[in-house]
Structure formats: C-alpha cells, structure tokens
Design a protein that fits this description.
By secondary structure, the chain is an alpha/beta fold. The protein has helices at about 15-25, 45-55, 75-95, 115-130, 145-155, 170-175, 180-185, 215-225, 240-265, and strands at about 1-5, 30, 60-65, 100, 135, 160-165, 190-195, 195-200, 205-210, 230-235. It contains 9 helices and 10 strands. The longest helix is centred in the C-terminal third of the chain and has 25 residues, at about 240-265.
Length: about 270
C-alpha cells in the first residue's frame, strides 16, 4: 500500500504540491487540476509534470480527467469523452502514470445499466492499447454509489484494464458499511480514495481528520493488506485549514499503514 494524495484538494500548484508531498512523508500524488482552475487533465503542462516528477523519487499514482461525469443518457457527451480519452492515455505514457481515475457516470434514476457497462468496456479497450489501468470511483453522486454496485458493474464489464477506485467514505455516505463494500470488490481494487467523516443526526455528511470518523480505516487497511493490495492509497483533504489538516491526516495514514504491516509481520 502506497500513501499518495489527490493534490488539488489542497493546491493545484505543482511546485507546492511536490513540497507538501515530501513534507508530509507521502510517496506520490494523484493529479486532477494542475495550474489554474481550468487546467484539468489532460489539458495541462505535460512537460512541466514530467520534468518535475523525473527529478524526484515520487510515484504518480493516477491522473483524473473530466470523463464520464455526466449522465449516461447523454450519449453524445460520453462518446465525445471516449474520443478525447486518447489524449489522457498519451499523457500517461509521457509522464509514466499507470492509471486513470474516472467516474461511472452521474447518478440518474433511469440510468441504463447496459449502456454504462458498454461505455466502460470501450474505455478499457482504448486503455489496453496504452498499457494503462482505469480506476472507476464509486460515490453517492455517481451511478455506482456503493462498493457492491460498482463490483456488479465491473464484473459485467469483464475487462482486465477496468478496475475499482474504492471510495469507502463515499460508500458510507450512500448507506453501505465500508467493510461490506470492500468485501464486494474483492480482487477488483487498483486504487483507494482515503478520507473520513460521519453522517450527522440531521443526515448531513461531516468531514473529519483521518481516523476520527466512521469509515473504520484500520479495518480497511488490514483487509487490503491481507489481500496483498499494493496500489495507491490516495488521501483527500477536506477539513480546514487544509495544509495543516493534510499534515495531520498524512501522518496518521503513514503511521496506520506501518502499524498494519508490523502487526501482520508479527503474526
């Protein structure tokens, strides 16, 4: 398990992101917005990314384009996403990134399950030509709110390049016990999104420091380690002030991963 973070949850400035990554003791980054607010992958300064990553020993765990974020019923939009996907795949090859994190489309009451499977399978076929993995993220705002829902779709997709970006906090917000979601996704996870929080008595979600919420991260890490998961654990920071919170949560993440490894080694 490799601790990384989704940089634009704190800063979209690459130099500052690199500084925080090293200061917080993380091993890499997941990039979504790099530069100005409209500089979303793949429309970023690719040469800058390559030059600055090459000068470090940091991992680029994933890139996050704006892809499949609308409803599946808007066929013209997602077909256009597929046409533009090659730009992201080329970027991955240029900067040495092994995976792309995408959405399984927006939540929609009458979403076509078959169409979602077809679109993700097409994306997997495109990614296979570049040797890149696709990580599909569950969440309450998507057509796959839970781990179980995402596992069902990915099983039907049946493509080796299309895996899960497991988001336990998102599953919890959707009403699924996170450990149940992870069990459902057995063997399918290539990246884990890492944040914490709880649902208030009024039914609202409240973000908190990693380890202080209701996700149950220690249990998550123990099961991931038992299944020999070696991919990125990508920290997201939503508690203010974010730079200070990032340090606290990153420290907790690194220590928790070390403790899980040490415990497993002693058994």
């Amino acid at each position: 398990m490799i601790p990384v973070w989704l940089t634009d949850t704190v800063t979209s400035d690459l130099n500052r992101a690199l500084h925080y990554t090293q200061l917080w003791g993380l091993h890499g980054m997941e990039l979504r917005t790099v530069g100005g607010p409209d500089d979303r992958i793949p429309n970023v300064n690719q040469q800058q990314i390559r030059d600055q990553i090459d000068g470090t020993d940091l991992l680029l765990g994933s890139v996050v384009p704006s892809m499949f974020e609308g409803p599946i019923s808007d066929r013209a939009a997602w077909m256009n996403d597929l046409l533009q996907f090659e730009d992201t795949l080329k970027l991955c090859n240029r900067v040495g990134c092994p995976r792309v994190t995408i959405s399984p489309f927006a939540a929609e009451s009458d979403a076509s399950h078959e169409a979602i499977v077809d679109a993700l399978r097409r994306a997997g076929e495109a990614a296979e030509d570049y040797g890149v993995l696709i990580a599909v993220k569950n969440g309450p705002e998507t057509a796959c709110p839970t781990g179980a829902a995402l596992a069902e779709v990915l099983t039907e997709v049946g493509h080796p390049q299309v895996r899960a970006a497991w988001n336990p906090a998102g599953a919890l917000r959707a009403g699924e016990p996170p450990i149940d979601g992870l069990m459902a996704l057995s063997g399918l996870v290539t990246l884990v999104r890492c944040s914490d929080g709880f649902v208030t008595d009024e039914g609202y979600w409240e973000d908190v420091t990693l380890g202080e919420g209701a996700v149950g991260w220690r249990e998550q890490f123990e099961l991931l380690h038992a299944r020999d998961f070696r991919g990125p654990i990508s920290l997201e920071v939503y508690v203010e002030p974010r730079p200070e919170e990032g340090l606290r949560s990153a420290t907790t993440l690194v220590h928790m991963l070390r403790e899980v490894r040490a415990q497993a080694a002693s058994e």
